[in-house]
Amino acid sequence: MPAATDELFLRRAIRLAMNGRGMVEPNPMVACVLVRDGQVIGEGYHARFGGPHAEPSALADCRERGNSPAGATAYVTLEPCCHTNKKTPPCAPRLIEAGVARVVIGCLDPNPAVNGNGVAMLRAAGIEVTNGVCEGEAKQLIEPFLRSVEHDSYLTLKWAQSADGKVAGPGGKRTQISGPESSRLVHQLRARSDAIVIGIGTALIDDPMLTPRDVPLRRKPLRIVLDPQLRLPLTSKLVSTAKDWPTAVIHDECRTNSRHAEELRERGVAVHCSEHFGRRGQLEAFAALQLIREELGVRDLFMEPGPTLAGSFLAVANRVWVFRSLTSMNDSTAPAAATIPAQLVPSGTIRVGDDELTEYRRPMIDAATDRPYAV
Ligand code: AOF
Ligand code: ZN
User: Per UniProt, where does substrate bind (predicted)?
Assistant: First the structure.
């Protein structure tokens, strides 16, 4: 099969996998496309956490369409699994039973229980396996999962700015900058994340709920406020809804036994302390991610920072989403957006309603070559 054809079907599988967005996390999005004689004869994706994997869904689709998978090529975005102590039966044996002749894989499953063992099982059964087709894109698809398997965090920053680069109104006053279509995307991304993170400045000025709204929600993301002096008001929406929506604050070390800490706890807020706040109250970004990972147990983070918090976390961000509106603020007292460092590379701009969304990504480095994957 020419390499270009493999790429074509693998890309189709990547696009299909994205239908699982918001429903499968923290597990990876995966899809499988079955092809014979250049024709798609069945396809499927992993649609929900704990539900059937991509491969059995594609095999079922193939049979429902009256086709036989025997002799077909299976294009899978992720190495088929082969381990048993989990929610669903392993996929590699299913492909073997179905008699597929060839399996083309985007990338290996970083899960140590699989990681090459799925490929070995397929090859031992006489199936031809090609791995690493569209590998950069396949890895990008599952980047938060990849990071978490590597015991790392995956951090997305998001903000909206006016055409002249301002993130709030005169004197920092809250102003709606982006349109409703952009808000909808933000709610989708909130719903996909393990946690939504803001600084105390935003909590005090905006009094946000930080919940994903009007989008399908599989689980409730943890709401985290970085609040060195523990100023989050008991009357805030975050605190008053903390019994229904998991909420945590991270403050500096000396407030642990304060009355306010106790009152927050009584209202259902998890109160954590970090010794990594600097003298001016800014939290050291690496230490914050580590604490959030290790004490709060969450890895895929969506941060909605003001410019100061953005300034501290851009150095460790994996991805940045900037919504730009068409209108200017024209006010010198309005705060300006943080500057995005050159290491975060623009990966695309799309129109969202009247706004433009630009995504910036930190290129993933291939451990084998020490160079970024070409995406
Ligand atoms: C595949 N195909 O579609 C997916 C895979 O708990 P389970 O049974 O859903 O298994 C989760 C693990 O399976 C996950 O950590 C990852 O290693 C793999 N995901 N594998 O062959 C799929 N979603
Ligand atoms: Zn599987």
Answer: 190, 206, 210, 213
